[in-house]
Structures
1.
Amino acid sequence: MASLNNFFSFDSDLDVNRRRVSAISSSPPLLASSIFRKSFTFSPRTFSPRVYSIASDSALPIFDYTYEDKFAEHFYDSFLLEQDFGLLSPGSEDTPTINHTPPLNLYNPPYFNENPLRANPPTTYPSPTMTSAKDIKPRIAGPARTVSNSLSLSTSPTFAFHSPPGGSRGSFSGGYPGVSGASFSGSVSGAAKQLKPFDTKDIKVLLLENVNLAGVEILKNQGYQVEFLKSSLPEDELIEKIRDVHVIGIRSKTKLTERVLSYAKHLIVIGCFCIGTNQVDLQFAASQGIAVFNSPFSNSRSVAELTIGEIIALARQLGDRSNELHNGTWNKVSKGCWEIRGKTLGIVGYGHIGSQLSVLAESMGMSIIYYDILNLMSLGTARQVPTLDDLLAGADFISLHVPETPETKNMIDAKQLEQMKDGSYLLNNSRGSVVNIPALIHAIKSGKIAGAALDVYPNEPAGNGDYFTNDLNPWTDDLQNLKNIILTPHIGGSTEEAQSAIGVEVSQSLVRYVNEGTTLGAVNMPEVNLRSLTLDEPNHVRVIYIHKNVPGVLGRVNAILGDHNVDKQMTDSRGEVAYLMADISDVKEAEIKHLWQSLEDLSSRIRTRVLY
Ligand SMILES: NC(=O)C1=CN([C@@H]2O[C@H](COP(=O)(O)OP(=O)(O)OC[C@H]3O[C@@H](n4cnc5c(N)ncnc54)[C@H](O)[C@@H]3O)[C@@H](O)[C@H]2O)C=CC1
Ligand SMILES: O=C(O)C(=O)COP(=O)(O)O
């Protein structure tokens, strides 16, 4: 019998010392708790099987466990004693064996053929022979996006790449053509039920920094109370506002430090309507049960295009010529002005932005070298160089596209500027901390560097206005007086296209999290998702229990949930925080408070949410 893992898309990135077993009940539904209790007959201190996921339909609950390797035999024996369970492991037919789970490959057609549960096999598979491009239909319709208000799919590749499609990790939402939801769960076909938190009347949302209106509308349409401000807030005002809200939306300016977040007693989720998340204390947020979402890709093209414009503008001294003419001076010169064709662009950080820039620049005749801490596949004829020193010595233009981290602080300092070619150019559209600006000023004044473009600064104003002065950064005057330097007010991602895409993407993530508890795409929490509850399930309740990642929690939680049928459940951990989501049935409204309170009373609790 083939492994159910292959079909139900249980994650396979286990630690080396952990193994996995999947089990399927051979009789009608079993309470999840029965198997947990079984597990806890072992020494709970050393043996802590974590139920990774449970997927079920009306007949066949499937459980997926990870456990310490050294206890494998023990655990296996206990399963054999359990008459109701049969074990499913890769390659086993009659005699179950315990094996490492092979990497999941949902794109591999044989998995469909092998799956023993598939009642209605798809009639067509992609042809093994070459098909012309225009005939290829995507096999995967897209990830489950069963948000209550039927929002459209996100464009974020996070969902396409990181999260197996089709309502993965235990949820199955008919994402595969030819496999109808009905073969797995009658309820899948039902309309999604709009859930509401049992203990919160109105969801209050604070949106700062002029978040795009497309996103604002999505949140308002949910009936949330939305307060919208154009700028960021000073810390004391932020603390006052953040006390009351459940959701906050920010961009790159608002610093959500441990101090600020410690006042945010009702906050459940933060939306960074941008790429960078360095402005949020992610770890502290997770420790408080606050999920953080961003938009990892939506403005990368905008930044890459801005950079292209700046490379040409610097090479031709466009800023200076334009300023001169604005002031009435005709200054027609060619000295020190260059074509970019044939020049070498050095990209530091070959991620989403750096790699797009690489393609665009190459198409204009530049040679590309790049430096990254990761070994990455080169696009086009770009070439990765082993060290930053190699890049500094070899490039005519250097463009920075790294995140703000301790390692990237002052990555370009006096020493690095000295290593650059004479007459080369520096562009920084990443974060203000990456370049030592006084050192850059010195290098430009000395003629070592022929020009620079800066979009980001160590200190940036909270909103628009006449704030770019020495009060903000002590070297501002010097910078403003340099020749051939382009200064822009952090507009790399500020295009209509990027901002509306970000607005929609992040708002959708927030809505999914608030309404359904889904953490797909979260940057500080494990990614957990279950298919939506439907209108056919009026007495079902979704329990979300964010807890400390310590042994023994699941047994206790499921002892509490165990009076009800656990229809489906998933739990995963990231560092010290674990996230459990369970849909339980036959819950009377009067029982919800007790359920919530019982979970809240557990010492492992970080945050409990009950949606119904
Ligand atoms: N100016 C603006 O308006 C915008 C600025 N940004 C900034 O650009 C940064 C990069 O964005 P993406 O390309 O989307 O990020 P990304 O995460 O896709 O790529 C960053 C790359 O930098 C590499 N990297 C990290 N540390 C490094 C180090 N010490 N040395 C060399 N390489 C290192 C990573 O391995 C990765 O390949 C963001 O973190 C953000 O701070 C992003 C969007 C707009
Ligand atoms: O996306 C990012 O990381 C940016 O730097 C853009 O920030 P912004 O939304 O313009 O404040």
2.
Amino acid sequence: VSTATKIAQKKFDNCIMNASGVWCYDEKELSALDKSEAASFVTKSGTLESRKGNPKPRYFETDLGSINSMGLPNQGLEYYLNFVNKVQEQNPNKNYFVSCTGFNVQEDVLLLEEVKKSGFKGIVELNLSCPNVPGKPQTGYDFETVDMILQTVFENYEGLLGVKLPPYFDIVHFDQMAKILNKYPLTYINSVNSIGNGLYIDEEQEKVVIKPKNGFGGIGGDYIKPTALANVHAFYQRLDSRIQIIGTGGIKTGRDVFEHILCGASMVQVGTALMKEGPSIFRRLTRELEAIMRSKGYEKLSDFKGKLKYMN
Ligand SMILES: O=C(O)c1[nH]c(=O)[nH]c(=O)c1Cl
């Protein structure tokens, strides 16, 4: 049987979805994702109460990516749980994600109690890496706190739960974080969030381009793909195989999807490029990935997942 026929017969499970924060603020945006070719969707990170977020302009697109300092604007976790529970009922064969984030461990526990009370059957993404709430550090860079949060959260929460991590830039930090993560019954880790506190400048006006934090914001897009691939692969090398990896960062073509999977990702999420192109991007990325797989004779993701070669 020809390779092409084999691929046609074993269409791989779609593995592409949105990154939290992009095209997922309200029911309208989430419904558009649900209608698209995306494998699933994740909501904007919900907090205990709804939030307006930082003053605008707080998002800016560049040729190579984006800078954002949204400040966690969201409708509140309850809104997202109500909506996703409804959608989940209509599509039992899809696994939906709800993202949430507290400002301390007590809030994280309250959020997960709210999830449990709502009867949510999907996957929770605990965001440990928002870089844009003035005065709040990125939890993911405080290893002891991450350990304490996961220990506390898993004392009571039995559902499917993953964590959204910031990018790390030090091999010892990969070692230390993996050691902590391997202690817990995590469904997955999502690596990476934006690279925090970058600065993009309008040279003509000699000015920053976003209002919050004197122009400092999280960087996404082409700028961060090498960092994202390194984080995905570093955790792939270190985590128990029971913990899946969602790869996020710098994805705008089928090649980028292929590279994230080659580094060990089981699924990928698209942020900046989705913001630029809209939900039709999922059809394009799926087609481009299929073409690459066909040209290499791969039938399913496991044929190449994590199989990045080193130079011997
Ligand atoms: O400013 C934001 O809302 C934001 N922006 C990001 O780039 N990552 C996050 O996790 C969040 Cl929560």
